[in-house]
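Fold tokens
===========
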Amino acid sequence: MRAGKSASATSVSKNSGRDPMTCKKTANTSRCNCTYEPCERKGACCACLRYHLESRELPACCFPTGAEATFDRSFEHFARLVADRKI
């Protein structure tokens, strides 16, 4: 990186001028396995992750479908699934 250029400026130039931090909500929503229907954060991954981490939880995308449907998104539930080799 040349002197005087920030890392973000360099990454934008490598992406043909596109801002790499632009939200891809439409594309993300098509891959989101969250079954909580009134969720306003669906597809906004950074907002979803921030929300769940503040509550000591992980977002739906960290859980297999059956486990996600329980709405138990706790770290402890995730750890049990890993211990039981279900993830």
